[in-house]
């Protein structure tokens, strides 16, 4: 190790190509897990205001209100590690071929696999916007939303008001579609990087990766599409 | 015998630190049963006759087993056919009137020496970092004294088929050497003779691979698609697994 380091084995992992990729894969698992949870939670919208708002109330109060902060810090840490590691790897990858081919060709690399860094950056931009939109609530009519009948924060109305504008919905659809592209390569890559992919299960892993990416995409896009098409609307009382 | 009239776009570079450029050559009357290298021989003869400097390229056995020939042909290392080396690629795979781009294997770790010749000694240094067994493991008959499961022997053999040509690096979008390193590590790691030095081998070879300036694998499997010996990217998965175990073992001992 060139630099002195608090924990040599962790630094060794971070400083080798395979070690850094293992970190990308492990943080990828956490982020996919979060996406599955988030997408499933969103679908409660279709069970109505009561279901969604009580679920949100539960999230905010689990483990005496500490749970949500443990989750937030964990997800943020995974996200930052995933981002920094992949950017460093991409920079190294570009440096590994200073002069490109005059006549480049691709045999079998999927388009998704070739735009990972760009789909990733779009997701980053979207996550920042999405957090400002629904967590920080910079939109005034979302920040000052009246509580629901039970006195809880009215997530149900927030989602519907938030997705009532076309620009917000279109950005959401683009970002979630690129997320789907990112996952269609990323999920299968987790297995390869962790050494779990073999000749025998390669087909299955690719199918599972693409299916899961599609299901996550479908679960996310159905929400704004239902709002903008008027399928789901504000409760009559509010 | 049919002949082909082709236009060649060939990378010319006078030396390691000189700027290169693409030059266009007319290759007319090329017999379609010539190999790609024989086609270049014909073109070179004509260049020499006209008093020019022939195109430099690597070649040796010309029967697909030595790993000396290289060339990225129309963007694909060893050309469009798949599972062959450039010397075994025949001109009948091309059509009359085609324009063919011929470039060196491109990677920072494979610097161009001249024209289409690149320095692939980075691979030798990776082998020196662990791709060997230190003790003598016996003569041919001794191999049969060690029972080795048929599946393991077959898998090891399919990894050992790697000829170290570097096409995997040239094809990889990131100029990663993972297919080469994984094949060279796996063919020893799969056998009992390779076990005592397994941890040291995996860590050493990966460290050297990184030091040489190869890129990182992004699981696109371009390497597997162009490999003349059809080495499976499954070996990369195995190297990832072996690396994680070796790193853990090194930390705990």
Entry summary:
The complex is a heterodimer of chains A (238) and B (253). Chain A is mostly helical.
Question: Can you walk me through this structure?
Answer:
The complex is a heterodimer of chains A (238) and B (253). By secondary structure, chain A is mainly alpha-helical. Chain A has one domain: Fumarate reductase/succinate dehydrogenase, transmembrane subunit (3 helical TM bundles of succinate and fumarate reductases, Up-down Bundle). Chain A contains 10 helices and no strands. Chain A has helices spanning 8-14, 17-42, 49-61, 67-95, 111-114, 116-136, 140-143, 155-162, 166-193, 202-228. The model of chain A has no long low-confidence stretch (mean pLDDT 93). Chain B has 2 domains: 3-114, Beta-grasp domain (Ubiquitin-like (UB roll)); 120-252, Alpha-helical ferredoxin (Fumarate Reductase Iron-sulfur Protein, Chain B, domain 2), CATH 1.10.1060.10. In chain B, helix 4 (150-160) runs antiparallel to helix 6 and helix 7 (198-211) packs across helix 9. The N and C termini of chain B lie far apart (67 Å). The chains are: A mainly alpha (238), B alpha+beta (253). The interface between A and B is large, with 45 and 49 residues.
Q: Which keywords apply here?
A:
heterodimer; A: 238 residues; mainly alpha; 3 helical TM bundles of succinate and fumarate reductases; 70% helix; 0% strand; B: 253 residues; alpha+beta; Ubiquitin-like (UB roll); Fumarate Reductase Iron-sulfur Protein, Chain B, domain 2; 2 domains; five-stranded mixed β-sheet; two-stranded antiparallel ribbon; elongated
